[in-house]
Amino acid sequence: MIAHQGSAIYLVPYPHSFIARFYDSIGLRTPKLSYQKWSGEQPEMTIGRTPYDSAGLSHGQYAFWFGAKFGQKPGMWVVDPVGKKLQGAPISESARKELLHWFSGRASEESTFEPPMYEGDGISRQLDSITLEQHIMQRSGLRQETIRTFLSPVEGGGSGLGPDALSAYCVYAADLLHPLDDGAGEAVQMFPGGNTTIARLMAKALIPSCIDGPAMVEAVSRNAVRLAALDTPGAAVRIRLSATVLSVHHDGDPAKADSLTVAYAKDGKVFRVKARSAVVAGGS
Ligand SMILES: Cc1cc2nc3c(=O)[nH]c(=O)nc-3n(C[C@H](O)[C@H](O)[C@H](O)COP(=O)(O)OP(=O)(O)OC[C@H]3O[C@@H](n4cnc5c(N)ncnc54)[C@H](O)[C@@H]3O)c2cc1C
Question: Which range of residues forms the domain containing residue 73?
Answer without folding.
Answer: 48-174
